[in-house]
Amino acid sequence: AGELYVVATPIGNLGDMVPRAVDVLHAVDLIAAEDTRHSGRLLKHLGIDTPMVPYHDHGEEHQSQRILQTLGQGQTVALISDAGTPLISDPGYRLVRKARQLGVKVVPIPGPCALIAALCASGLPSDRFSFEGFLPAKSGARQKKLSALADDPRTLVFYESPHRVLDTLSDMVAELGADREAVLARELTKAFETFLAGSLEELCQMVEEDANQQRGEIVILVSGAPEVAVSESEQRRVLALLMEELP
Ligand code: SAM
After folding, report:
1. Most buried residue among 52, 150, 157, 215 by CB atoms closer than 10 A?
2. Which positions of the chain have pLDDT values less than 50?
3. Residue 150 main-chain phi, psi, to 5 deg
4. What ipTM does this complex have?
5. In angstroms, what CA-CA distances link 63 with 56, 67, 68, 143?
6. For 185-228, how does the pLDDT look when each residue is reduced to its tens digit (9 = 90+)?
7. How far away, in angstroms, is 121 Cα from ligand 1 center?
8. Who lines ligand 1 at CB under 6 A?
């Protein structure tokens, strides 16, 4: 069987295109793209004329069948999305899974990814984090999801649309607490790249007062729930209980 390359592309700055990704896009027999028109512009800029087929969530079954057939004939295919790393809040998971099940070799070509770019420059703890992708668009479902995350000690990373950023930040204040440290990373790698840092309440205010902060592409990072410190009296109480049980 052929090989499936999962290829990252820039999240704004074309200078972030990885040389190995360019080589692979040149060399493969077929490129499967989330939006062939959008990716067509990138390929043209790179001087690549490899044939393209669409691969997105609608019609996934049909499209993946065609791609898997190509792979089955021993040909090579590269999967790309509109921006960043495929499968990260982007299509690709089902295709990669089916390809592996058929014994196709799957090769990652790592590169830009908004969540990693935001996290590594945010100043929030990066040793453990939970990527939550997009929260539900409806407020009720969003609050429920946030409330389920309220005790998570890991840094939380979300993708958000500019139209919803203010509503989401105010739901975060309500569900995670006004004092929680957070960072809003906007327009990463582009001309207006901005990092806003503060408590959730402060971020909410900054975004409300400046409509520019409600534009472009956004990652929201929230520090994890503070580890609950056990008081000395509680420690003594537990110790006393244990002592009673000891022989
Ligand atoms: N696969 C992409 C990746 O690797 O980051 C993510 C695709 S997802 C459909 C698009 C979302 O990613 C945007 O709504 C935004 O939350 C985030 N994003 C993508 N590019 C970004 C950028 N340059 N700056 C900030 N956030 C970005």
Report:
1. 157
2. none
3. -60, -30
4. 0.99
5. 8, 6, 9, 35
6. 999 999 999 999 999 999 999 999 999 999 999 999 999 998 87
7. 15
8. 11-12, 81, 83-85, 88-90, 113-115, 159-161, 185-190, 217-219
